């Protein structure tokens, strides 16, 4: 039966990259006999400027009924920074309890990485970022705001339930991967409360999985290792803020933000999961055909996998892998292929099988 | 008149690398006619195991009277993680109000960087990390610890005074550099309280310095840019935790932790400043002559500069620059030169001028 996908293209390069992802999904749907129905939602900067709302409750209720959400990017110079990011991206992640932010860091063959001598087989990890709590809860406040004695506090709130479900997802994922290795990334020597909860929970879940090898790495050291020895890692579990930081670095290592995919997963299915490229709306290059749609297409691949279509997912990945080596650069006019041509080439590769 | 330097070699490779820094300082002292007096303090893992104390109050009072502290590294497998780091490093940073953690990220000629095509002139920035507050204050707590409803909170506390003095130091430093550029790194779109204080303070200080160019970069994007375009940056100001993270990454970019120097500065002089390599105690390679003392010697150079001996400081830097290109690797047996030989070669270069 039909699967309903809510499409939220958003701002800047969001619409042009998601259009290619839709094209790729449709090609895969034809080839593998899937029934995908797309419903467009015009959220983002314009919508906010006209209506004063980021996501009105009735739209949220409709989104909640979708089988999945394919998201582009939001953010525009005309909107105060943070309004759309928090009101849309962060809001949906928490409202739909998408507690796993799954971000593969994978160097694809033929993609130039900024790291000397790094080979694809040395860079194939998955970072699972807790996606509903930590420093992202927005807890904190001011005392004497604006005066010389001002204090601003910002709180990271971590629950056993939230930490445990993310870590369990990491161990489940690791069970299905050849290396069966999970790394906890935190800063437990300094963040002694949050770090203690993460470490204790990690140790307990680890004790239930004697087949899985584990280790712990401080977030500062993680940044160093991601550059110098990414082959150390298989599955990485970490909190919301550290995950935000290390996945951007991971994107750099795997050849650029334009290539990085992510899934905001609600593994219970109580609400839809949402798939989005790691990059932002890049208003500076929007509308020129200079955006790399690989991140969006690979996010759509994660979506197809999540919707129960692993073969179709792999055909999108294979299509991207076939086209990437033909690019002159990973974004911009030097790409040597427009955003749309890239999408057409991937769709053709999928159709041809 | 004599300047009294408290030497805290610490654990692991701390003693072997600081010994080379002392040697280099003594060579510079002879050449430039400085009067440096060293006083050794045997703090670290052994001291803690025997006495049960990390820094006893009387030792702290003596350290407080020094003109500067040269610190090696602490940490040993025999001590619970965090005890020495917090009890010694973090404690002295705050007790002595060393509110600026100055960490140059500089690619020296002849040093192999993991980043493709990166040239020394593209990587010459200074990161100023707020060093006394933020998430490092250790505020937070547990509710229902150990149970299924446990919550662990961790608070970042930021004061106007603390933020402003760090930012002002950044602008002062930028005034004396050719590019006159300061970047604020934070995550202001999500950490709306702390980020707001940092951004408002930054904007106000910036308004007083019309000659200085400024910009703002999110910490996640910063990690990406540090790898792909470090030439964007001149002086970077940021909070304690973000500074911890991005300076380890900076160390990777400039060729390794073994080369990275830092100064914990108390610019008011109300207590001594402390100079330490960014690396840790590396117990795995301790005592074998495999540690690279460059980070320690370059930290000593920052110390000499701070003590009012810029020529002597430059002679240490020049010595390190002369010796580094002779190494076969940046650490380990492949270095092709022992830790001590490295120190001797630097001292010889300093003496010869
Ligand atoms: C847009 C922003 C709020 C978001 C985040 O911080 O999570 C982004 O950086 C990401 O990584 O998805
Ligand atoms: C040892 C540790 C407490 C310390 C820190 O987190 O500041 C270290 O990582 C550093 O960067 O100096």
UniProtKB/TrEMBL annotation, chains A, B:
Pfam families (alphabetical): Iso_dh
SUPFAM superfamilies: Isocitrate/Isopropylmalate dehydrogenase-like (SSF53659)
Isopropylmalate dehydrogenase-like domain mapped to chain residues: 4-346
A GO molecular-function descriptor: magnesium ion binding
InterPro entries with a match to the protein in the record: ICDH/IPMDH (IPR050501), IsoCit/isopropylmalate_DH_CS (IPR019818), IsoPropMal-DH-like_dom (IPR024084)
Cofactor(s) required, per the database record: Mg(2+); Mn(2+)
Enzyme class (EC, first level): oxidoreductase
Keywords: Manganese, Metal-binding, NAD, Oxidoreductase
Domain of life the protein comes from: Bacteria
EC number per UniProt: 1.1.1.85
Database matches in NCBIfam families: PRK03437.1 (NF002898)
PANTHER family to which the protein is assigned, alphabetical: D-MALATE DEHYDROGENASE [DECARBOXYLATING] (PTHR43275)
Protein name: 3-isopropylmalate dehydrogenase
């Amino acid at each position: 039966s039909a699967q309903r996908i809510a499409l939220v293209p958003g701002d800047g390069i969001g619409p042009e990259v998601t259009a290619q992802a839709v094209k790729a999904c449709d090609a895969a749907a034809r080839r593998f006999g899937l029934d995908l129905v797309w419903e467009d939602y015009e959220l983002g900067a314009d919508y906010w400027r006209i209506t004063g709302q980021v996501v009105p409750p009735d739209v949220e209720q409709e989104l909640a009924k979708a089988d999945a959400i394919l998201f582009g990017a939001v953010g525009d110079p005309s909107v105060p920074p943070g309004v759309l990011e928090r009101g849309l991206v962060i809001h949906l992640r928490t409202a739909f309890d998408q507690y796993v932010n799954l971000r593969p860091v994978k160097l694809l063959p033929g993609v130039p990485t900024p790291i000397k001598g790094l080979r694809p087989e040395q860079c194939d990890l998955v970072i699972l970022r807790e996606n509903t709590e930590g420093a992202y809860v927005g807890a904190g406040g001011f005392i004497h705001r604006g005066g010389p004695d001002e204090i601003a506090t910002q709180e990271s709130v971590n629950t056993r339930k939230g930490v445990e479900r993310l870590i369990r997802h990491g161990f489940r994922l690791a069970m299905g991967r050849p290396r069966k290795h999970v790394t906890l990334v935190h800063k437990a020597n300094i963040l002694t409360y949050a770090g203690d909860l993460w470490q204790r929970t990690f140790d307990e879940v680890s004790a239930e999985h004697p087949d899985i090898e584990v280790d712990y790495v401080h977030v500062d050291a993680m940044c160093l290792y991601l550059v110098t020895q990414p082959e150390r890692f298989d599955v990485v579990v970490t909190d919301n803020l550290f995950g935000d930081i290390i996945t951007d670095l991971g994107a750099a290592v795997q050849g650029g933000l334009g290539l990085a995919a992510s899934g905001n997963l609600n593994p219970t299915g109580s609400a839809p999961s949402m798939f989005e490229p790691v990059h932002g709306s890049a208003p500076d290059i929007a509308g020129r055909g200079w955006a790399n749609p690989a991140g969006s297409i690979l996010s759509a691949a994660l979506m197809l996998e999540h919707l129960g279509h692993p073969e179709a997912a792999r055909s999108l990945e294979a299509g991207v892998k076939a086209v990437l080596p033909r690019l002159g650069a990973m974004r911009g006019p030097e790409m040597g292929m427009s955003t749309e041509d890239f999408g057409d080439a991937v769709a053709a590769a999928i159709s041809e099988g």
